[in-house]
Amino acid sequence: MTQLATPVYRIGLYTGIAIVVANMVGTGVFTSLGFQVIGIQSGFALLMLWAVGGLIALCGALSYGELAAALPRSGGEYHYLSYIYHPIVGFLSGWVSATVGFAAPTALAAIALGKYAVSVWPGLNAQVLSILVVAALTLIHATNSRAGSRFQVVITLVKVILLVAFIGAGLVWATPQSLTFTPQRVDWQQIISPAFAVSLVYVSYAYSGWNAAVYLAGEVEQPQRNLPRILVSGTAVVLLLYVGLNFVFLYATPLSKLAGQVEIGYLAAIQIFGFAVGRLMGAVIAVLLISTVSSMVFAGPRIVQVMGEDLPALRSLAVVSRQGIPVRAMLLQAFLTLFFIVTSTFEDVLLYAGFVLSLFTFLTVLGLFVLRWRQPHLPRPYRTWAYPVPPLLFLALSGWTLVFILRDKPLESFLGLLTVLLGAGIYKLGSRQVSKE
């Protein structure tokens, strides 16, 4: 393998948008509504939940667009936090993202893919299928960046077409439920209720991935121009899809059938098309999740690569192939993903990692203000639209969610902070080794 200064293949606008959309549209939108309707019985409040989650993601994308244009290097939060605050802050962000932030959600999507496929073809082994999908997609992306990018665009386009078709079919053929979607006085009370805050945590997880393109910014063609467009366009597309999907889920399916259930898409499809055709929803969602797994396999290793470029102790993970692909970092993420699939312990990991992942995103958007204050003359090809409203709104809503998680999930938050402390210890050991050399 050979270390290259610049990658051979550059990621274009549409590939970047496809990566963002594919990262966002995963298991969350098909599984979380059943838990939301337990505490919220208002159709308007439930749709507002997804609208507010999308607003948070869109404000984050607008804020990240300025950072991505001013600091166009792969690595995402790792790069931004290292530059704005201190290298150890960036390392801790990269540590959490590299070990849990990508590998665990990739495993979650792969396992969900296997389960949905088995609902259609009972003879399949769900775990074996999950492993084969991760291995095959890793092979595709590790072999050829151009082929991997084209595959990502095609499979994501299929995903969007299928979702739009499902929304359209639901509006035309579904039997409307008695639920009302126009705001009533009691609905506003539900929006400021603890149940709304709880559900917003899970909705935020469903929207996670809106920042996916910044992890491979160094490989994007004309990053100062394209990165903001990629982030905002991809997030806006998903916001519309999510609100439309959840409207159809609620419009077509009684709340009593949704409450506490996981396979929301499957249940809604049965209500719209009948049992025989509804079973095929499992196959459709399985196809959609291939795109999600693919995008995470593509983007995640770039964090490890950039960390390896900066830290001598991880230098071997920065090595790229002749085509500029971080194969070693990709294989490391694949190993962690397969470990989570085989052990099935990643769900607990996601609970406690959610707090620290949100914390570092909060610090990154806050860094937009810090960078403008410290370096007002830094070239900014793109400036956040309507600044400072989007970053302030993001910080307010995300901060509210963080406080709630810390108060309501103290054990998971504490374990997440322990993960950060472990990363700090590794950083200190690596620094000492470098100083001795």
Automatic annotation (TrEMBL):
GO molecular function, one term: L-amino acid transmembrane transporter activity
Spans traversing the lipid bilayer: 12-38, 44-67, 88-112, 124-142, 154-175, 195-218, 230-252, 264-290, 325-343, 349-373, 385-407, 413-430
Pfam families: AA_permease_2 (PF13520)
Keyword list, A-Z: Membrane, Transmembrane, Transmembrane helix
Domain of life: Bacteria
Principal subcellular localisation of the protein: membrane
Gene3D superfamilies cross-referenced by the UniProt entry: Amino acid/polyamine transporter I (1.20.1740.10)
Membrane topology field: Multi-pass membrane protein
Cellular location(s): Membrane
Stored InterPro entries: AA/rel_permease1, AminoAcid_Transporter
A GO CC annotation given for this chain: membrane
The name this protein goes by in its record: Amino acid permease
Organism: Hymenobacter crusticola
Organism lineage: Bacteria, Pseudomonadati, Bacteroidota, Cytophagia, Cytophagales
